[in-house]
Amino acid sequence: MPTAARVQRAIPLLALISLVAFSAGVFFATGKRASGPEIPGLLWPDPPASGEFTLTGGDGKPFARTDLIGRWTLMFFGFTNCPDVCPTTLAVLKDVDRRLGDVPAWRDQGQVVFVSVDPERDTPARIDDYVKHFDPRFRAATGPDEALQPLTRSLGILHAKVDGGGPSGYSIDHTASILLLDPRARLVGVFSLPHDAADIAERYTRIQRFLDKRS
Amino acid sequence: MRRPARFALALIATFPGLVAACPGLTVEHGWIRESPPGAPVAAAYLTFRNEAAGPLRIEGVASGRFAAAMFHETVHEGDRARMLHRHAIDVPAGGQVTLAPGGLHVMLMNPAIAPRAGEVIELEFKCGGSSLAVALPVVASDPATAP
């Protein structure tokens, strides 16, 4: 068979393959969307699970993955030498907590956890004082890089030490999203900047109801 | 420094309205966030307004209460927050620049005593050969109580 004819014959086959591939793409794309409600920040259907980790809590005791089990956790990564984003975010989390005060799942199982990615300067005692300034129920944890990595890697958190310029010493670039972990320690929600307490409280409630219905 | 010069500087700091301090510059809606205990840093937020005919450059900031003070800006790259040191802030003629949470701010480092809600702390802004001293209230972290 001449080459041109072979190519001509192949065209309908290629078209068919393309159509099947396209349909499959549409099926999976829409199927994915149909399996979860339209809530901005919801990670569904494949929420990444937190890795096994052991940090030191603000109370000096181990803070591990088991501390996330059976609880709804709003988690934020930062450091106490951070004058703007970290206190602003903790103040927002305080406001979120207040707004969720009459949501039973949050009232009974909710916790706010601040993880310091600056173990060099942030001792457990310091981060404990820091978070308790915002709310005495807030929890804090930190640990050396190798202890932080299983947690940060599994949740997609980036942090890097950079020159702070001048007498401030170093600073840390860090992921500033607020993360929502469900009672199985799965990352089910990411609340990106800018943070608005009313909006986060509303999205939390919708995500939690959606997941509670499924379990 | 000779005594008259020192006296003049003290006068500028004490009575900013009496001496031509940063002509045309006013500071509005200023506040300092109360620091959590042990936090070595704090931030001040405010609006610079320039009522002069020409642009104004604010070249620096200082406060007797802190070991160092500087302009910083939080910039967001995707979900990542970075802090950048700004050497100066330019306020256009007749315009304003706002320093607000999540963006431009005055970074205040290593306080002699941590700022507590209810107090007032003086900051001094430098522009050209002069400076403008303003007293800012310290407020609690809760955004609902922030001015």
Question: Summarize this, please?
Answer:
Chain A is an alpha+beta fold and 215 residues long. Chain A has six helices and nine strands; from the N terminus they run αβββααβαβαββββα.
Characterization of this structure:
- The complex is a heterodimer of chains A (215) and B (147).
- Chain A is built from six helices and nine strands; from the N terminus they run αβββααβαβαββββα.
- Chain A has 215 residues and is an alpha+beta fold.
- Chain B is mainly beta.
- The chains are: A alpha+beta (215), B mainly beta (147).
- The A-B interface holds A 80-85, 87-88, 90-92, 94-95, 126, 129-131, 133-134, 158, 162, 164-168, 171, 173-177, 190, 192-194, 197 and B 33, 35-43, 67-68, 70, 72, 74, 76, 79-85, 101-102, 105, 107-110, 141-144.
- Strand 7 of chain A pairs antiparallel with strand 6 of chain B.
List the helices and strands and how they pair.
The complex is a heterodimer of chains A (215) and B (147).
Chain A: H1 3-34, E1 54-57, E2 62-64, E3 72-78, H2 85-99, H3 104-109, E4 110-116, H4 124-134, E5 139-142, H5 145-155, E6 159-163, E7 170-175, E8 178-181, E9 187-191, H6 197-214
Parallel strand pairs in A: 3-4, 4-5
Antiparallel strand pairs in A: 1-2, 1-5, 3-8, 6-7, 8-9
Helix pairs in contact in A: 2-6
Chain B: H1 3-14, E1 25-33, E2 41-50, E3 56-58, E4 60-62, E5 66-77, E6 80-86, E7 89-91, E8 96-99, E9 104-111, E10 120-127, E11 130-139
Parallel strand pairs in B: 1-11
Antiparallel strand pairs in B: 1-2, 2-8, 2-9, 3-7, 4-10, 5-6, 5-9, 10-11
